[in-house]
Amino acid sequence: MNEISWRGINHLALVTPDMDATVRFYHGVLGMRCVAAIPAGPMRHYFFEIAPGNTVAFFEWRGGKTFAKPAGVPVQTPLQFDHLSFNVADEEALEALRQMLKEKGIEATDIVDHGFVKSIYFTDNNGIALEASYWVVDATAKAEGERDPRLFIDPDPVPALRELADKGELDWMPETELVQGPLDII
Fold it and tell me: CA-CA distance, 47 to 36, in Å (whole number)?
């Protein structure tokens, strides 16, 4: 297998019914530079820089419905997305962000200590649950095959994780099919 050198999130595509409010939140409140604003068929498609080469993007679906869902809390409706966490440097940066959000009228939690990360939680103008975190124990700092025992504490890990620990590879991988639909807007 060829090694893939991941470099973060090129873009995470989300949906907004109001791009103007989204620009005001992601640029005006969070300070993320809008680095692209392109048409995608009948929709707008805007990209906001998180870090070099890393963006969060929005399609504007006018009249679309949004929902408010707190991060990490199960809901009864079908969905594939829970929340997005932005990485910050350290606790000082996390506290500065929390204060800045509060000054701009954005509710944010106190710092939550998860052991390996510390975080705050807040919501964007679309009801999307957001988190800002920094690594207390950097899960990405170990080389392939090395494990930090503080980060692998599931008492009953899934078979795939056991295979990786025992053999260094997976016995099988799922196959998928594209969801069929119009592609002419891309």
Answer: 5
